[in-house]
From TrEMBL:
This is Flagellar protein FlhE. InterPro entries: FlhE (IPR009420). Residues 1-18 form the signal peptide. It comes from the Bacteria. The keyword Signal applies. Keywords: Cell projection, Cilium, Flagellum, Signal.
Amino acid sequence: MRQFIFTLSLLFPLATPAATGAWQASGRGVALSHRGVAASSAPLRAAETINGHITLVYWRYTISEPIPAGLQVQLCAGSRCTAIEGGSGATRGLANVSASEALRFIYTVPGQGGLFPPLRVGRNEVMVNYQ
């Protein structure tokens, strides 16, 4: 029986399960005072290098009232972005992106002219699950 198990181990190398985990980051928000201009948050990244790919991102941001009509928010990793709605939620829109990639929130209010009062984002937060 031992020899059978030994032979099987030579024929079929041990499959190592993919590492799974999560990291979280948060940062101060941005101010946006003009329509038609995008404002990007500071990059949010893991404290250390992660070997794996994003599976799911939980996100949250806080915005001063009133929220301008037409506000568009995207969560981006490099050049890949996914639209997000509401102050918090989860998305698989960045699945398969490297888990070490920095994430940014991009805020835009379509149109032209100033925003009064300006849009003020208090805080941006992400929790990234990876495998």
